[in-house]
């Protein structure tokens, strides 16, 4: 009762203020803001922890007009998500709005209690959260969770709600909506769950949807479908979207205006095309420069193989650092439920080059990499590293293999022992292989840390005192300690912000040319792969569907799956490809 | 992701709201706790490196340490705290209410109750110490072997632990007392056997958890052999929760030993064991309330203190 | 699902058999002639012929393996042998004590659940930090109190000081109040702790934020989203507290002088009545294993994710 009354009150109040203000002077800041669907003015948010207030959003102001898509772009720690959540009053328990106004249709809702905001949430502002796997209640059916928003706001009788739920599920493109409504979240894929969350967000046809990194947890092809869906709904209902993302490519291809945030402050805002074509702030320029993309810039060309440069060397040297042939990995014991994670994979990597294994989650790329470094035992097939088949190695022979091939992990938080100092971490391989005495180890450790461009001061620190990028440098230094010939990089830059990512990629390139290293680069990110690799294998469902030089694969893809992958990558430049959906945002 | 006001109010909750906000709100990562600060899609913050956490110990924790220190001093030097004899009393002063002369009053034989409590500490605490030692050594060995060897041995050992768990602790202790006979040390061993299962399960799960981490695999990747990995990485990273459990079990053992003492299976009279003190005072509940009340309060305070310290070892320090 | 069910029941039977074997080895095989110490005591004045008869009755002269098989067969048939102390069948003594203990345990468990749920939900829902702080300190206090002391303290306060509950006599309900309270306090502590922790953990789940973003109120979120998700870990702990419940009734019945299984246990230990003790231990293990089996089978009902997997990772 009270909820409905309240929401009506809010609506009428909003309508009133809109009507009243439409005649006001457009030059006046507040009235101009009030005419907008949403106007955030001088918003400041801080978190309280251990008695100290830390401000994470400083004087942020921006507006969203009805039906508009505004992207808030920034790296982690930029305050973009905090800003978005402050708008609907969903700050964490120790967060608070220090000052500023949040005008929804001209009404300041920044100081509202939870009770008052409840009438706005869901009805006027919808939320699409970032992690579809944990954003649905695992013990309630999909239908119940979509219907819930209707029940909370008391829209229609029980039977009516059921029909509406089925309609909504059909509208967001879920096949067989009646079945889906009866199912539980764990029975749906990530992309389907995100569609359910979108159905929840649009159920009451709100004027504004806040989409907080809605596709970061999804594969690139799924991401594209979800973004298309949001575009379509925007066109259909005229819903405005506030798009929070770290991905400049997504922001560029899907928004009409961009707000760039860094360190809790807005660095720049404006029409998307303008900001991209003519960035004003240094930070935006750096962000644009660092963003890996499919856009021009040359491909990495491998140096001519040594047998072309020096005919005499051909007999002496094996041109391939890694040769994988007919590699298979099956999981599961019984023959009936054995699952082939890697299915007859073959490729080779020429010495001193970077080969990328690209694929979406579940494609078998990581399992392949782990078999090559022999953390996983192949079911069958050969893996040659420097001409030696490493698949049957065991015991001491396997241990000695680690001197030639090293692995760098995706998560630099998990791959360093939290109780060791950086010096101990980097020196560990030297100790294990008894490569130097105590003094020699110290000297070599200092040299390695310097090699990955870290200050000597970090040697005594523990991993938790380092930033993500610094930790990944430490992991690389450890990998270099034994002078390996091959380094396998398993999503080694995927967990890093773009600016840090660019620095690490630079470092890797530098090390490769200095030390003549061979890289096997595992990644889901095509734009990074395009930038760093000489050759590429595309994996899907445990098989390699296409292999070739990077240029070949990116410019003249042979396989449909490769084409689909490439088409799905959002580009920061205005999209050249024809828009598949009629409701594509211009600009 | 976000939190309702229930947490807003919860400044004294088990986990601090700050930690929760950390997990929930990656962008608030100005101060750092153990879980990585990651953005959507697992992006890692480059931002300002985290500072070392510095905590001011809470009053409760200081108090807990003070109580444990006092109890230990009672064990080492009871004479410093009381001049009265705990065993022989003055018949003329029997059943006196607490006063300046007799802080906790006197019992039916005219013995000073405070003296008996102070001198009793050695029995209760050494018993608890033996019990924890038995549980820690046996349980942790089983857990470590099961966790690091794995396979069939792991399965067999854990089924044995299941069996130990299926028999209620007190009944298991009583069974062992029947086997070994009455007495302080036997009661302590019986209590210790009851805690083997808890130690074994925890240490196994810790070893298994740490063994699955990337840094342990990375250690193998840097050429380390199994014993080195266990010693250098697995043990240091899995020890804290086990130590915390040991502290917790110390309190549990004090309770269990006093229970066995109360039932008459521990030290024989006139030993001033805490449980026995309460059992003896039981006959005078109607008239001499202090005989049961004071020893009980001492037990509660010591157990509370060890629990608080256990919490500190397990949660706040690690 | 049926395969899961039979597997799980088989595992329970195995654990029970192992528990029987362990106690048999501890109580009967290892001490050797401990039973005879009692009967050969000259004070009893039994003639050698009578002693021989006793030896035959308790099967003492059989080899250990045969004794084991006979005892096991007896247990399977519901024959637990004879009490050494009274000479009556163990089954009879158990049957006498069981109703008393069942009443006490049921009352204690129910009160413990009520206490735990109250503590957890009030502390989770209150807007006042101090109430939450006080409530969250209660479980740690509860587990630090010796059960026997609590019983004595309650008698002291309610029976002797306030004279609210008679020490001797009184109706059955009156005689149950204090024992039930004594038993409930230590049981409620772990339940309250796990429930508080689960509630807190569920509140940080993103789906709670999504429910908030739908416009749900605090009550709505607590009852329709958080409570059920917090139930599964609580149920696990509730199953495990049944061991505590049995141990607790030994102490409670001794303190309050109630003639139940707990009192019987105390008497059996004092009198070294091994057949009675073995029967009690096996009975306790049976109750514990059955309760936890039921808990395991309940998980899939509460959490559809577990229905798919058919097993629970603990």
What can you tell me about this protein's structure?
The complex is a heterotrimer of chains A (587), B (318) and C (314). Chain A is α/β, with parallel strands linked by helices and 587 residues long. Chain A folds into two domains: 37-291, P-loop containing nucleotide triphosphate hydrolases (Rossmann fold), CATH 3.40.50; 318-330 and 337-568, P-loop containing nucleotide triphosphate hydrolases (Rossmann fold, 3-Layer(aba) Sandwich), CATH 3.40.50. Chain A contains 22 helices and 20 strands. A six-stranded mixed β-sheet of chain A has the order 6-7-8-3-9-10, with helices on both faces. A six-stranded mixed β-sheet of chain A has the order 16-17-18-13-19-20, sandwiched between helices. In chain A, strand 9 (257-262) and strand 10 form a beta hairpin. In chain A, helix 6 crosses helix 8 and helix 16 (422-432) packs across helix 17. Chain A is globular. By secondary structure, chain B is mainly α. In chain B, helix 3 (59-76) packs across helix 11, helix 4 (113-149) runs antiparallel to helix 5 (151-166) and helix 10 (274-281) runs antiparallel to helix 11 (290-317). Mean pLDDT of chain B is 78; it is low at 1-54. Chain C is built from 13 helices and no strands. Chain C is flat, with a radius of gyration of 24 Å. The two termini of chain C are 19 Å apart. Chain C is an all-alpha fold and 314 residues long. Chain C has two domains: 2-76, no CATH class; 97-313, MetI-like fold. Chain C has helices at 2-29, 34-39, 48-57, 64-76, 90-125, 129-142, 147-161, 172-203, 206-213, 218-256, 261-270, 274-302, 304-309. The interface between B and C is large, with 63 and 69 residues.
């Amino acid at each position: 009762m009270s909820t409905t009354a309240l929401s009506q009150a809010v609506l009428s109040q909003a309508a009133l203020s809109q009507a009243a203000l439409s005649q006001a002077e457009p030059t006046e800041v507040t009235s101009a803001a009030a005419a907008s669907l949403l106007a955030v003015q001088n918003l400041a948010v801080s978190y309280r922890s251990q008695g100290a207030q830390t401000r994470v959003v400083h004087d942020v102001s921006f507006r969203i007009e009805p039906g508009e898509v505004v992207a808030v772009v920034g790296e982690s720690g930029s305050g973009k998500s905090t800003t978005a959540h402050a708008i609907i009053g969903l700050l964490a328990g120790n967060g608070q709005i220090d000052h500023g106004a949040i005008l929804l249709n001209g009404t300041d809702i920044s100081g509202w209690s939870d009770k008052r905001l409840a009438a706005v949430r869901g009805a006027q502002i919808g939320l699409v959260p970032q992690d579809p796997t944990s954003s649905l209640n695992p013990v309630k059916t999909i239908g119940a969770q979509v219907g819930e928003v209707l029940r909370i706001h008391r829209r229609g009788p029980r039977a009516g709600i059921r029909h509406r739920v089925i309609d909504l599920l059909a509208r967001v493109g879920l096949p067989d909506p009646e079945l889906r409504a009866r199912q539980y979240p764990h029975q749906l894929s990530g992309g389907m769950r995100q569609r359910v969350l979108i159905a929840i967000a649009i159920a009451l046809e709100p004027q504004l949807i806040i989409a907080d990194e809605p596709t970061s947890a999804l594969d690139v092809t799924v991401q594209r479908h979800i973004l298309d869906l949001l575009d379509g709904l925007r066109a259909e209902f005229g819903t405005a979207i506030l798009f929070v993302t770290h991905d400049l490519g997504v922001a560029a291809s899907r928004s009409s205006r961009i707000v760039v945030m860094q360190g809790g402050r807005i660095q720049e805002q404006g029409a998307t095309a303008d900001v991209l074509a003519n960035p004003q702030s240094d930070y935006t320029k750096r962000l644009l420069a660092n963003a890996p993309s499919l856009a021009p810039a040359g491909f990495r060309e491998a140096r001519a193989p040594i047998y072309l440069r020096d005919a005499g060397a051909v007999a002496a040297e094996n041109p391939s650092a890694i040769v994988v042939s007919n590699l298979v990995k099956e999981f599961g014991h019984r023959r009936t439920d054995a699952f082939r994670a890697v299915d007859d994979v073959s490729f080779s990597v020429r010495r001193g080059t970077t080969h990328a294994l690209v694929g979406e989650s579940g494609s078998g790329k990581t399992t392949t990499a782990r078999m090559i470094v022999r953390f996983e035992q192949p079911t069958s097939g050969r893996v040659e590293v420097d001409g030696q088949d490493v698949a049957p190695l065991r015991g001491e022979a396997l241990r000695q293999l680690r001197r030639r091939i090293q692995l760098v992990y995706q998560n630099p938080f998990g791959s360093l022992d939290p109780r060791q100092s950086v010096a101990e971490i980097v020196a560990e391989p030297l100790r294990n292989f008894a490569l130097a005495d105590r003094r020699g180890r110290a000297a070599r450790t200092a040299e390695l840390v310097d090699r990955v461009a870290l200050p000597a001061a970090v040697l005594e620190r523990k991993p938790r005192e380092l930033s993500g990028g610094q930790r990944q440098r430490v992991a690389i230094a450890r990998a270099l300690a034994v002078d390996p010939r091959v380094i396998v990089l398993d999503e080694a830059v995927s967990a890093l912000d773009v600016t840090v990512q660019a620095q690490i990629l630079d470092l890797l390139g530098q090390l490769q040319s200095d030390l003549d290293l061979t890289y096997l680069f595992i990644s889901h990110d095509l734009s990074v792969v395009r930038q760093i690799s000489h050759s590429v294998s595309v994996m899907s469902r445990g098989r390699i569907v296409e292999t070739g030089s990077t240029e070949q694969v990116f410019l003249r893809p042979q396989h449909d799956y490769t084409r689909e992958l490439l088409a799905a990558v959002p580009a920061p430049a205005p999209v050249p490809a024809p828009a598949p959906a009629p409701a594509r945002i211009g600009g | 992701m976000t939190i309702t006001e229930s947490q807003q109010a919860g400044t004294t909750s088990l986990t601090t709201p700050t930690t929760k906000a950390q997990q929930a709100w990656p962008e608030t990562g100005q101060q750092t706790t153990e879980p990585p600060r990651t953005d959507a899609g697992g992006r890692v913050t480059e931002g300002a490196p985290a500072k070392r956490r510095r905590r001011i110990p809470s009053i409760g924790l200081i108090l807990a340490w003070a109580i444990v220190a006092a109890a230990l001093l009672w064990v080492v030097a009871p004479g410093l705290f009381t001049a009265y004899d705990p065993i022989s009393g003055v018949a003329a002063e029997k059943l006196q209410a607490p006063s300046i002369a007799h802080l906790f009053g006197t019992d039916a034989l005219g013995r000073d109750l405070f003296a008996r409590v102070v001198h009793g500490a050695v029995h209760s605490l050494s018993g608890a110490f033996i019990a924890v030692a038995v549980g820690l050594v046996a349980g942790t060995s089983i857990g470590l072997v099961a966790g690091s060897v794995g396979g069939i041995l792991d399965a067999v050992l854990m089924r044995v632990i299941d069996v130990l768990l299926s028999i209620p602790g007190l009944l298991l202790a009583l069974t062992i007392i029947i086997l070994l006979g009455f007495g302080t040390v036997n009661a302590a061993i019986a209590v210790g056997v009851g805690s083997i299962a808890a130690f074994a399960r925890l240490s196994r799960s810790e070893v298994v958890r740490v063994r699955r981490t990337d840094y342990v695999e990375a250690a193998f990747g840097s050429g380390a052999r199994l014993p080195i990995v266990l010693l250098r990485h697995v043990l240091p990273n899995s020890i804290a929760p086990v130590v915390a459990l040991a502290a917790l079990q110390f309190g549990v053992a004090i309770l269990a030993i006093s229970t066995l003492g109360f039932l008459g299976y521990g030290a024989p009279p006139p030993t001033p064991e805490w449980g026995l003190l309460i059992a003896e005072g039981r006959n005078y509940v109607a008239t001499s309330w202090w005989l049961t009340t004071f020893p009980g309060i001492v037990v509660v305070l010591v157990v509370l203190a060890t629990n608080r310290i256990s919490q500190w070892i397990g949660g706040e320090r690690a | 699902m049926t395969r899961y069910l039979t597997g799980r029941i088989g595992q329970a039977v195995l654990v029970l058999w192992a528990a029987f074997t362990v106690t048999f080895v501890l109580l009967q095989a290892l001490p050797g002639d401990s039973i005879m110490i009692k009967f050969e005591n000259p004070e009893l004045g039994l003639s050698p012929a009578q002693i021989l008869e006793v030896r035959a009755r308790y099967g003492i002269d059989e080899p250990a393996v045969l004794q084991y098989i006979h005892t096991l067969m007896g247990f399977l048939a519901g024959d637990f042998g004879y009490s050494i102390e009274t000479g009556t069948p163990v089954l009879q003594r158990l049957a006498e004590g069981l109703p008393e203990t069942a009443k006490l345990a049921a009352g204690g468990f129910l009160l413990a659940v009520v206490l735990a749920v109250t503590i957890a939900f009030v502390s989770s829902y209150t807007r006042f930090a101090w109430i939450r702080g006080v409530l969250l300190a209660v479980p740690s206090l509860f587990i630090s109190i010796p059960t026997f002391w609590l019983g004595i303290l309650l008698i002291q306060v309610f029976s002797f000081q306030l004279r609210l509950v008679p020490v001797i006599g009184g109706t059955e309900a009156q005689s149950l109040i204090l024992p039930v309270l004594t038993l409930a306090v230590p049981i409620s502590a772990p339940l309250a702790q796990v429930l508080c922790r689960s509630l807190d953990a569920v509140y940080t789940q993103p789906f709670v934020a999504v429910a908030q973003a739908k416009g749900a109120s605090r009550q709505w979120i607590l009852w329709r989203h958080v409570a059920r998700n917090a139930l599964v870990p609580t149920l696990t702990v509730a199953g495990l507290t049944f061991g505590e419940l049995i141990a607790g009734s030994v102490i409670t019945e001794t303190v309050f002088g109630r003639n139940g299984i707990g009192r019987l246990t105390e008497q059996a230990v004092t009198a070294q009545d091994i057949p009675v003790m073995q029967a009690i231990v096996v009975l306790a293990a049976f109750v514990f294993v059955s309760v936890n089996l039921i808990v395991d089978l309940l998980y899939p009902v509460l959490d559809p994710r577990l229905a798919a997997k058919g097993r629970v990772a603990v």
